[in-house]
Batch of 2 targets.
Target 1
Amino acid sequence: MASPLHAGASPGAPRPPLDRAACRGGRLSRLLRRLLAEAVAACRAAEGTFWVPSPTRAALEGALNHGQTTDILETASVPMADSVVGLVFCTGTAACIGPGDPHHPGVDEKTGLPTRAMAAAPVRIGSDTVAVLSVINPSGGGVFSRVDLEALEWKAYLAALVIKDARDEP
């Protein structure tokens, strides 16, 4: 059976971009959800989200979430040009913010929960950033540590391997 990332594609055809639908099907969904749960645990976070570019690439869309607002975040989107996860996607560089640092308020408004701290890491395949893995609000308050960010970057690297493997399936 063809992978959801290139079902019906002819050999040599360009692969479709990673999108919400591709992340929510079968083996890929199970593996990404497990990595997301592991990232939340490793970073002592309240919640984690796997973000993918919108079809127009003007926004990032919540594809998968592990936490208390899954229904909201798996339908949320944030502007690419005006969000921490958008910055991470565009630059390919991980980032952390803490209390008082600016971030796009849209998700907080939808969930009714404040983002006090966030760490985000790019999911890269080769030189291309295909998604962003983010976690928010470490338990006990405060900010995410360098160790937390390194753990998140490791989970983002593993997510890239899982996605690449799904794309390479016959």
Target 2
Amino acid sequence: MTNRPIHIAPSILGADLGRIEAEAERIKASGAEWVHVDIMDG
């Protein structure tokens, strides 16, 4: 077992992209320190 910290990063992909600013604030308010962003350019 390792002593390294575990980071949980919620994905912005699951957010309501029409309300991205509010969703980002919701993630921040949850205590998350990281946000996972998928770049899908086809």
